Amino acid sequence: MSIVVRDVHAHELDSILELNNAAGPSILPLDAARLRHLHDTAEYFRVAERDGAMVGFLIGFGAGSGHDSSNFRWFESHYPDFFYIDRVVVASRRRGGGVGRAFYADVQSYSEVRHPLLTCEVFLEHDNDPVRLFHGSFGFREVGQHVMPGTDIRASMLVKDLCSYAWVRETYGGTLPDEPWLGRPRVPARNTEETKA
């Protein structure tokens, strides 16, 4: 009955696409090409499993990644360094069972040794009070609102200060120890080709 959060495998993208597009109006739909682009460029792309079945995924990007989301660019125009949660989806039958909290604990653990802020947005057009309450209980606060171009969807822009970042930066500078629990950033496919050249 435990929740396992692990890196995504490319062969799982069809299942992830189906999960994303069944999530309802609080998550923008994707097509296969866009999901492949996210897979190839994301710094953090992990899935959650419970009882051997995939029950959700989370995709994230660090500042300076060049991510093309208007919400990411909004944060980029307001903060010099942050980690951005692009999307998190939990299967409807598993909501309220701790999967979201497992994802947020994992992405925070990853981010806090690399960035001072964890950022995301929540759509305001839909009945998203449970989602806003979840984020508030996890320490996020609203720092502005943004209307996404071409959609007229208003998003509440949320930030969480990562208190460990300053200590890690002071102690280790830009070089983290080589410890398995720290994990390494995914190498996006675009960078893989560059290193072969």
Automatic annotation (TrEMBL):
One of its GO terms (molecular function) is acyltransferase activity. This is GNAT family N-acetyltransferase. It is an enzyme of class 2 (transferase). Coiled coil: none annotated. Residues 3-160 form the N-acetyltransferase domain. It comes from Luteimonas fraxinea. Keywords: Acyltransferase, Transferase. Its EC number is 2.3.1.-. Pfam families: Acetyltransf_1.
